[in-house]
Specification:
The complex is a heterodimer of chains A (about 100) and B (about 325). With about 100 residues, chain A is mostly helical. Chain A contains four helices and no strands. Chain B has twelve helices and 14 strands. In chain B, β10 (about 180) and β11 form a beta hairpin. Classes of the chains: A mainly alpha (about 100), B alpha/beta (about 325).
Chain lengths: ~100, ~325
């Protein structure tokens, strides 16, 4: 499922645009934004603002803590869009396997 | 600038509309189709007015200053039944002289028709706001917009107020705000824009800005003030339009606006109304907290002369 892979890549791009000085060259989708990558609340608020702009979904402040990694962010957005995170993951696996 | 005709609804009493005649002429000269709707008595409902008019790019309601921005308008945008968002602005009618001053200011901004994109980034001298200002500079810079960072760490209040007299198309403030003004720069009030700097008469050469957006708490609130800061700026001729909050705001909502405004500016939004439509966050509280005061079609373009003046502004940065 190209959409999911592209979505993950777009979150990665946004984060790098927000804190290119702080992020390592490579990190995995499970890396914790705060604990592993060292992002702070201002970084995450901007990420949420950009995410809302790109997807049109609304992330209430009380939900921001759930967006702790790229995978968690994708799952959250998919759940808000009515797509089962598990189904999206299977589709992504199938898609990656086909390359 | 786009030559496509735009449609504006001006809803006012006959006396208020007469005081705004200079602006109506300037709008028409700028290819704006102005529809005048007169009322007497109670202030009309803006949402209903926007729903009644099929082709509408913006609306301006002028009514008694006894009402407050927070009660006259529901938000800076009204969503029509067809899903289109229309920017709606308000202007308090306190006296004819201040309406004429606003009309002359907004007409001047309409006529000068600059096509350079530039923004003054203003902010309180606190690390979190300076960082937001830096991010905004980066965001607009990616879109080719010239950013002048005149935050509290780099410039004094007097110099910042002089600098805003360059006449840039847009100013963005981040920091704390109060109904009477900005907390940054050791406190900025509307009257500061009309006090000559000590030993000079430089205020007389001020050129109005297109719009000033205060992304902070309460600058359009009437709590314990006769007229809020956001309302005073257009009425005193500082800018053609002003955008401020009628209540306390969340940092997350202000960040949403900041990100959206920078993107919309980088995308080339030509007027303040268009900027707000493009920038509007999906957060309901972010939308409901703010109001637009003044000309909803105030152009955001800056001209060469304004840019040259802005480049000469000295800062400590």
């Amino acid at each position: 499922m190209h959409d999911d892979a592209e979505f993950r890549a777009s979150i990665r791009r946004e984060l790098r645009s927000i804190r290119r000085d702080k992020l390592p060259p490579v990190w995995d989708d499970e890396s914790h934004f705060r604990d592993d990558l060292g992002l702070d609340s201002l970084d995450l608020v901007e990420m949420v603002a950009r995410l809302e702009q790109a997807t049109g979904i609304f992330v209430p402040d009380e939900d921001v803590a759930q967006l702790m990694s790229i995978s968690a962010t994708v799952d959250y957005v998919r759940a808000q869009q009515g797509v089962s995170p598990d189904a999206a993951r299977v589709a992504q696996h199938d898609d990656e396997a086909s390359h | 600038m786009s030559a496509a005709p735009r449609h504006l609804l001006l809803c006012a009493t006959r006396s208020a509309a007469a005081a705004l005649s200079e602006l109506v002429e300037a709008w028409r000269a700028a290819s704006v189709h102005v529809e005048l709707e007169y009322f007497t008595g109670a202030t009309p409902n803006v949402t209903a007015l926007v729903a009644e008019h099929q082709r509408l790019d913006a609306a301006l309601l002028v009514s008694s200053a006894r009402r407050a921005p927070g009660t006259v308008l529901p938000a800076p945008l009204v969503t029509r039944a067809d899903g289109r968002r229309v920017p709606v602005a308000w202007l308090p009618f306190r006296d004819t002289a201040s309406l004429r001053c606003f009309a002359a200011t907004a007409a001047r901004v309409q006529r000068r028709a600059g096509n350079r994109r530039a923004v003054a980034l203003l902010g309180q001298w606190l690390p979190s706001y300076l960082r937001v200002a830096d991010r905004m500079r980066s965001l607009v810079g990616d879109g080719g917009v010239r950013a002048f960072r005149w935050t509290g760490d780099a410039i004094t209040r007097e110099s910042m107020i002089d600098a805003l007299g360059c006449g840039l198309g847009l100013g963005l403030y981040v920091g704390h705000g109060r109904p009477m003004g900005w907390v940054g720069y050791h406190g900025v009030r509307a009257h500061h824009f009309h006090e000559p700097a000590p030993g000079t008469s430089r205020r007389s050469t001020r050129e109005p800005m297109g719009a000033i957006l205060s992304l902070c708490c309460r600058t359009a609130s009437r709590k314990r003030v006769g007229m809020s800061y956001a309302e005073s700026l257009p009425l005193l001729g500082v800018a053609a339009a002003s955008f401020g909050a009628v209540s306390d705001t969340l940092h997350s909502d202000n960040t949403r606006w900041a990100v959206g405004v920078c993107s919309a500016l980088a995308d080339g939004a030509p007027t303040v109304g268009d900027l707000l439509v493009r920038a509007a966050p999906v957060s309901p509280t972010a939308l409901q907290s703010y109001r637009l005061i003044g000309d909803p079609l105030a152009p955001l373009g800056s001209d060469e002369r304004s840019l040259r003046r802005a480049q000469r502004v000295r800062t400590y940065a």
